[in-house]
């Protein structure tokens, strides 16, 4: 059978934010990012040296013509 095949392209975006930077953390969260990890001693010349890793998973629908089996 021939028809349209629907697939998704999936990827994620990440950002690193100093743990005490509430403004940046709120900004990322406003756009759907979540804290997924905290890295200790991430920064070398500023205190606190720890950073949150914020991540957002994105997906885009990609429609292609193909064969459905």
Automatic annotation (TrEMBL):
Entry keyword set: Acyltransferase, Transferase
Gene3D superfamilies listed in its UniProt record: 3.40.630.30
One of the protein's GO biological processes: mitotic sister chromatid cohesion
The keyword RNA-binding belongs to this UniProt entry's keyword annotation: no
Keyword field contains Transferase: yes
Top-rank lineage group of the source organism: Eukaryota
Gene Ontology, cellular component aspect: NatA complex
MF annotations from Gene Ontology: acyltransferase activity
PANTHER family from the UniProt entry: N-ALPHA-ACETYLTRANSFERASE, N-ALPHA-ACETYLTRANSFERASE 50
Annotated protein name in UniProt: N-acetyltransferase domain-containing protein
UniProt organism field: Exocentrus adspersus
């Amino acid at each position: 059978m021939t028809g349209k095949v629907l697939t998704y392209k999936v990827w994620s975006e990440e950002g690193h934010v100093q743990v005490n930077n509430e403004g940046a953390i709120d900004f990322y969260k406003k756009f759907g990012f979540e804290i997924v990890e905290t890295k200790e001693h991430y920064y070398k010349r500023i205190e606190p040296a720890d950073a949150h890793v914020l991540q957002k998973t994105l997906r885009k629908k990609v429609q292609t013509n193909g064969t459905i089996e």
